[in-house]
């Protein structure tokens, strides 16, 4: 019974955040089965990511900056981006900019959920600990996914020359933000570690702005207006 409670507390934040982002799609919601597929894919990529991280660590060591921007931010975001691109970029259901946010967040939160489950099972976890993880690592992955998905969605509907630049931003921005997050939270200097609070607040504000802008670019928003005029 205790294990069930711990697992529920570990899974709930990722599911809740994904539900929130899914419901923020104001004009053309994505198929549930496709969102779940990407969420489960995010869970499955944990194993190859861990293998890659271990290989790099054995070869190059684990310097704090290498860990933050390479092993954690770099490897995790590159693999998520690679999977996202090959599964969804040319999919017919990817038909508005906000879809990029939904799909990227699905993969990110699937990964974060497995990460949270592993932490809860292998380390003594209290309700307070799991709540802190919901506010920091899990929501962090959601926010990195929002940034990735926002520029992914812009790239999808941009001219080819601009699309390449936006795709690069959709990869490099989450890598940088994820690396900075890990560098702050693992710092042994308390003044730096406490910086995670304003950093996360800034990311949430920025993320909500991106959500609004992505919805505003939906072609279905214009169609809805035209139909409203006809009525």
TrEMBL record:
Stored InterPro entries: Peptidase_PrsW_arch/bac, PrsW
GO cellular component annotations of the record: plasma membrane
GO molecular function list: metallopeptidase activity
Predominant subcellular localization, coarse grouping: membrane
EC assignment: 3.4.-.-
Broadest EC class assigned to this enzyme: hydrolase
Membrane topology: Multi-pass membrane protein
Source superkingdom: Bacteria
Gene Ontology biological process terms in this record: proteolysis
Stated family: Belongs to the protease PrsW family.
Function: Involved in the degradation of specific anti-sigma factors.
Name of this chain's protein: Protease PrsW
